[in-house]
Amino acid sequence: MDKALFDGIKQGMKQAALYADAKKHGKSLPPGLREHCVQVPGQVDVKAIRARMGMTQSQFANTFGFSLSGLKKWEANVREPEAAARILLRTIDRFPDKVIEANRT
Questions:
Q1: Model pTM?
Q2: What is the DSSP letter of 43?
Q3: CA angle at residue 13 from 19 to 98, to 5 degrees?
Q4: pLDDT, mean of each 10-residue run, the chain (105 residues)
């Protein structure tokens, strides 16, 4: 393993331990550590997002890694996407090219 990579992972683990300790004991975060909060959207109009992108259900599912059957259920309001999927869908809606680029193999 590359030393710089190892050192980065080691530093991240130290910061995670400091963060967990501060949260557990009700302390403020140590200098240099930040907490990021993500607002989870309550509802997402999956069909509208897909339509704005001009994709079929199959294309959208394949492009962004969703199961086709799950996508169809979301669009038919049979099921609601989980919180992480709603966050991803909102990100896809706002920055589709960036999401595609970030997930290219």
A1: 0.67
A2: -
A3: 90
A4: 85 88 86 83 95 97 97 97 96 96 86
